[in-house]
Amino acid sequence: MKIRRLEATDWEPVSDIYAEGIATRNATFETEVPSWESWDGAHISDCRFVAEVDGAVRGWAALTPVSDRCAYGGVAEVSVYVAASSRGRGLGSALLAQVILASEDAGFWTLQAGLFAENAGSLGMHERAGFRLVGVRERLGKLDGRWRDVLLLERRSERAGVE
């Protein structure tokens, strides 16, 4: 496995993996993959990575700012997606570890993740990476006409924002 920066040329496999996650109905409220331009504009360029196995992109991780207000400049939301055929092999954990390092290098002191309660694999991965459950956002939104609860997790850096 090789972890490297996500480039525009990776969009096709990245969007395919994102579509797989959307199809599970347990990864996101999104129902369609956005355009590259929309996705690119929403994600922090220094904090997005892909995992390659045998030269093929099999997973990705990226950060989005939680707010454009300056007080939240060091807080970002993390997303990690792994191709269905590659889950359970440590790719997600490796991607999450890399994006955590990059986030701290970029000055982020808090990472948060919003997970559907049913996504046990992602919950365990985040907890192993030092995220803690801070609350449950009950009936936060509807997906396919069904209210969904979202677990809110956060990870505080021990090196960024500690001065």
Please describe what this structure looks like:
This protein is α+β, with helices and mostly antiparallel strands and 163 residues long. The protein has one domain: Gcn5-related N-acetyltransferase (GNAT) (Aminopeptidase, 3-Layer(aba) Sandwich), CATH 3.40.630. The longest helix is centred in the middle third of the chain and has 15 residues. The radius of gyration is 15 Å and the shape is globular. The termini are far apart. The mean pLDDT is 96.
**How many domains would you count in the coordinates?**
1
Question: Which fold name fills CATH's third level, the topology?
Answer: Aminopeptidase
Percent helix, as a range, is 25-40%
CATH superfamily: Gcn5-related N-acetyltransferase (GNAT)
How far apart the termini lie comes to: 35 Å
Task: Determine the structural class based on helices, strands and strand pairing.
Answer: alpha+beta
What is the global morphology? globular
Please give the CATH architecture: 3-Layer(aba) Sandwich
**What's the main sheet like?**
7 strands, mixed
Number of helices: 4
State the strand order across the main sheet. Answer: 1-2-3-4-5-7-6
Strands, total number: 7
What is the highest CATH level, the class? Alpha Beta
Write the H/E string, N to C: EHHEEEHEHEE
Radius of gyration: 15 Å
In terms of DSSP E residues, the strand content is: 35-45%
Average pLDDT number: 96
